[in-house]
Design a protein that fits this description.
Shape of chain B: elongated
CATH class of chain A: Alpha Beta
Helix content of chain B: 25-40%
Largest sheet of chain B: 9 strands, mixed
Strand content of chain A: 5-15%
Structural class of chain A: alpha/beta
Number of helices of chain A: 15
Distance between the termini of chain B: 49 Å
Number of domains of chain B: 3
Largest interface: A-B, 44 and 30 residues
Number of strands of chain A: 11
Oligomer: heterodimer
Number of strands of chain B: 16
Distance between the termini of chain A: 23 Å
Strand content of chain B: 15-25%
CATH superfamily of chain A: Amidase signature (AS) domain
Number of helices of chain B: 15
Chain lengths: 486, 485
């Protein structure tokens, strides 16, 4: 057998179920590899000892009916975990230990998974490069100068470096799909309402959605199956019949109609991306799908709309971090002084920028011109998709306008950073599911991804399309383990 | 028509225009968006969930019971129930506001326009209701326990409030008194708010402006925040209206501002001006979907609505021939009306009404008791009234019996039997008794017969006295009339 850490999630599951591997075998391999990979700065909190103990417990009383029997998983530090520090990569929550568990992570543990640790991300998930974290930037295993993308950068980096067999992230404007694209991994943002938001540190409530990040499509289907549930603790959770995504996974996409939106051919898009997209179409044709040119006319308004709606909600969601009840506090002369000092010291620049933008667009006199208008445009963007989905079953686009950029390249230019989300943001605004799969390499040898967007709650369909394409693409990346310490 | 409430200055008359924003705590076991209990008077911070304390990742979930309570109240206010309403966030920072925003309803409240009818001495008056919306209460900041720190109690954080906004239709402190009492009565009938002002279940922001009598345009208003008793509301209005009139008379201008009522000094003080007003940055709460109610849902709630004070009053007047004044007193409080209806089940209506509003109220007043704590049960009062009605005892004796009943809710029939208080109604017995009175007072008889008819009362009194108060006064009257002819 090859290295344990080379196995996919599904392979690990079947090996454990067949008793070829114990949970402890698997967990200790991942712990060892994670310990040697500190250079990537992926972990904020390691729970290795507890994980090994739990693995032993599992092995002493194994339950092979679980979908993730004794499988160790490291997760983004935006999910609240009982008795394990949860920071959202912010100084303001640096000392915060929840007494409760998010629904999504609880679902993982209920199905046998074991927490390996909490992974770095952009502060409050605000960022596209994992450079806004209070705990320092994450480095991509693809190359030491590269960002892993963001905000689920720690998750993407840990997954690509094989420090965890799979992971979960959150996606508000592309925070799962963009880092997946940058690191040659699979990332799925489910339909809004599929995964409960209960216990996830909120960024923008109407956009946030948790999703799986995995090494292949099959794993994504399996993990989504475990994560997704109806939850009456989240009023926006939707009670629909959830399929057995992994069991129902199929490569039969014959006759499926796939839309190619012309508005996604943006100015200055590189030939490499053009070619990647073209290749994607051909793979789909090879699988028997039909390619249809479509139009999503309001696409160009998606980014400005997003950067009004998301900061508006964030400015309000982050008001609770005020030094009064929990988390970091700087003492002050009076209440207002304490607020100002606490929030000045507790939040990083990008978070402050978005709180200010959000406060501005909600202010009286500006509300109608910004927030209200953005809501209307959001409706139009959603309508665009609804119209197209009368004609097609799914949409194919590139995941990002470029491959991963270098650390520091865009950190002083917020607008150019925001442009990175141009293909992913419309999906969140419309609440639709989208999956990014690795589809090729650019000239520098860095991974590139393609995105498949589906109808609401039609995850099975985009998983099937991705599953078929994955086979044709046969993506390979030769990971040189340059970051490892002995 | 009684005199209007007007403020006179230098020969000019000013009318006072008042609108109220009443905050009524929804009667509910748990909070508006969490399952925490709402019990009043609990140890600080013992009725607090992670949601109420705004822990990271916590989400509000609407408590359907509170929604039903708001709908019921809306129906009680003859108001439109909106099929779609939206919960908004009202953003501001304060130590006892854990989320950094209050979830409230802004542009789309659950209840729209309605009205409340007031029964005033001058007749009835309809006060318009602008809207009713649901919102969360904040916690409590306590500044006087620790010398250096402010302590926060979150027990109230997240408790459901109904804000009931009136139109500026009120014109005097007395109307405000009647309005608050009527609102409270309606909500108590509905069981949607206990109306307990001492516990803060009912408070109001009072908007006051003045204008010269006869003018159409409203004056600039000031809002007096968070007044928690009817008396204070009346005092605050009186003070504020006079303050405004003084400013106008001196040629000044009223600044639109928020003021506080200082109950110790009996004056209002500026809290913040319009310019300093918070920008609350209202926007729809993305954690909550719009609240959609179909007509059937509302219709089903309508079926649960009990008879409300106005309907009950009409019924009492029509069916029992009570005066509007009496009916009003009897329906103002649901417990009083229940008591009344229990008494009249087996007794004379008119006598029951008299005894309840007379003797019983006096007794309750004296002992400072609510009708639910009445020392005399409806059942026993009913028996007493029947004893009067069938002539077993006189009204006068009944008062004595009533006093005895109050000590441990005693059965009046037994008291009458025990103490031998049964009225003497046997004409033969009474005739003997009266003959004795006449014989003993021959001089008075002469005077009477010579024209001093006023002395008739004297003979009645003597007869009653001789009988130990037990003689049936009616029969005594009849016999005396015959004998003294």
């Amino acid at each position: 057998m090859s290295n344990i850490t080379d196995l996919s999630l599904s392979e690990l599951v079947s090996n454990v179920k067949n008793k070829k591997l114990s949970s402890h075998d698997v967990t200790s391999e991942y712990v060892e590899r994670s310990k040697k990979s500190k250079n990537l700065n992926t972990y904020i909190e390691e729970t290795f000892e507890a994980a090994l103990k739990k693995a032993k417990e599992f092995d002493s009383k194994p339950d092979f009916n679980k979908k993730l029997p004794g499988i160790p998983i490291a997760i983004k530090d935006l999910f609240c975990t009982r008795n394990v520090k949860t920071t959202a990569s912010s100084k303001i929550l640096n000392n915060f230990i929840p007494t409760y568990e998010s629904t999504v992570t609880q679902n993982l543990w209920n199905d046998g998974a074991i927490l390996l640790g909490k992974l770095n991300c952009d502060e409050f998930a605000m960022g596209s490069s994992n450079e806004t974290s209070y705990f320092g930037n994450v480095i991509s295993p693809i190359d030491k100068d590269l960002v892993p993308g963001g905000s689920s950068g720690g998750s993407a980096s840990a997954l690509a470096a094989k420090l965890t067999p799979a992971t979960i992230g959150t996606d508000t404007g592309g925070s799962i799909r963009q880092p997946a694209s940058f690191t040659g991994t699979v990332g799925l943002k489910p339909t809004y309402g599929s995964c409960s938001r209960y216990g996830i540190v909120a960024f923008a409530s109407s956009l946030d959605q948790a999703g799986p990040m995995t090494r292949n499509v099959n794993d994504a289907a399996l993990l989504l199956e475990v994560m997704s549930s109806f939850d009456n603790k989240d009023s926006t959770s939707v009670d629909f019949k959830r399929p057995m995504y992994s069991k129902d996974l199929s490569k039969d996409i014959k006759g499926k109609k796939i839309g190619i939106p012309k508005e996604y051919r943006v100015d200055g898009m590189s030939e490499e991306i053009e070619k990647l997209w073209e290749d994607g179409k051909n793979y789909l044709k090879d699988c028997g799908a039909e390619i249809i040119d479509v139009s999503l006319p309001h696409t160009k308004f998606a980014l400005p709309t997003y950067y009004i709606v998301a900061p508006a909600e964030a400015s309000s969601n982050l008001a609770r971090y005020d030094g009064v009840k929990y988390g970091f506090r700087t003492e002050g002369n009076n209440l207002i002084d304490m607020y100002e000092k606490t929030r000045s010291a507790g939040f990083g620049d990008e978070v402050k920028r978005r709180i200010m933008i959000g406060t501005y667009v909600l202010s009286s006199g500006y509300y109608d011109a910004y927030y209200l208008k953005a809501q209307k445009v959001r409706r139009l963007i959603k309508n665009d998709f609804n119209n197209i989905f009368q004609k097609v079953d799914a949409i194919l686009t590139p995941s990002t306008p470029s491959s991963a950029f270098k650390i520091g390249d865009k950190s002083n230019d917020p607008v150019s950073m925001y442009l990175n989300d141009i293909f992913t943001v419309p999906v969140n605004l419309a609440g639709l599911p989208g999956i990014s799969i690795p589809a090729g390499l650019d000239k520098k040898g860095y991974p590139l991804g393609l995105q498949i967007i589906g109808k609401s709650f039609d995850e099975q369909n985009i998983l099937n399309i991705a599953y078929s394409m994955e086979d044709k693409i046969n993506f390979k990346f030769n990971l040189k383990e340059w970051w490892m310490n002995d | 028509m009684t005199k209007d409430y007007l403020i006179e200055r230098n020969g000019k008359k000013y009318e006072v225009v008042i609108g109220l924003e009443v905050h009524a705590q929804v009667l509910s076991e748990s909070k508006l968006f969490s399952t925490s209990p709402t019990k009043f008077g609990s140890e600080p911070n013992t009725q607090v969930s992670l949601v109420d304390a705004a822990f990271p990742g916590m989400l509000p979930v609407i408590n359907e019971f509170c929604i039903k309570q708001a709908i019921k109240t809306g129906i009680g206010l003859n108001a439109k129930i909106n099929n779609k309403s939206i919960f908004d966030r009202k953003n501001y920072f304060y130590a006892d506001l854990p989320q950094g925003y209050q979830i409230s309803q802004y542009k789309d409240p659950i209840v729209g326009e309605g009205n409340v009818v007031l029964d005033l001495v001058s007749g009835s008056k309809t006060i318009g209701i602008e809207r009713l919306h649901l919102e969360q209460d904040a916690g409590k900041s306590i500044h006087d326990i620790d010398p250096k720190n402010t302590l926060v109690d979150l027990n109230r954080s997240g408790v459901a409030l109904m804000e009931i906004v009136s139109k500026p239709d009120l014109r005097s402190p007395e109307e405000v008194n009647v309005y608050i009492k009527k609102l409270r009565s309606i909500m108590r009938y509905l069981g949607t708010c206990d109306g307990n002002m001492q516990e803060g279940s009912l408070r109001a922001d009072v908007n006051v402006s003045v204008r010269k009598q006869g003018e159409d345009k409203y004056g600039t208003r000031c809002e007096i925040k968070n007044v928690n008793s009817i008396k204070f509301m009346q005092m605050a209005i009186e003070h504020e209206a006079n303050r405004q009139v003084d400013i106008l008379e001196e040629g000044g201008k009223i600044d639109q501002e928020t003021r506080l009522f200082d109950t110790k000094k009996n004056e209002t003080r500026s809290m913040r001006s319009k310019e300093d007003a918070h920008d609350y940055r209202y926007f729809p709460d993305p954690d909550l979907l719009p609240l959609e109610l179909n007509d059937e849902y509302v219709e089903n709630i309508k079926k649960e609505i009990p008879e409300l004070p106005d309907q009950k009053k009409s019924r009492f007047i029509e069916k029992f021939n009570l005066s509007p004044y009496e009916a009003n007193i009897l329906v103002s409080d649901q417990d009083i009306s229940k008591y009344f209806e229990a008494v009249i089940e087996n007794s004379d209506v008119k006598l029951s009404s008299n005894w309840i509003t007379g003797e019983l109220f006096a007794l309750l007043n004296e002992k400072n008791l609510e009708i639910t704590e009445s020392p005399i049960s409806a059942k026993n009062l009913s028996k007493l009234i029947n004893l009067i009605k069938d002539g077993t005892i006189s009204g006068k004796i009944a008062k004595t019996v009533f006093e005895m009943m109050a000590d441990g809710d005693k059965n009046p029939i037994e008291i009458v039997k025990e103490k031998g208080l049964k009225q003497q109604s046997d004409p033969k017995e009474l005739e003997k008794l009266i003959e004795k009175v006449i014989n003993d007072n021959q001089d008075k008889v002469r005077e009477y017969k010579s024209g001093k008819e006023k002395l008739f009362g004297f003979f009645v009194g003597q007869a009653m006295k001789v009988s130990g108060g037990k003689a049936n006064p009616q029969i005594v009257n009849e016999i005396l009339k015959k004998k003294l002819k």
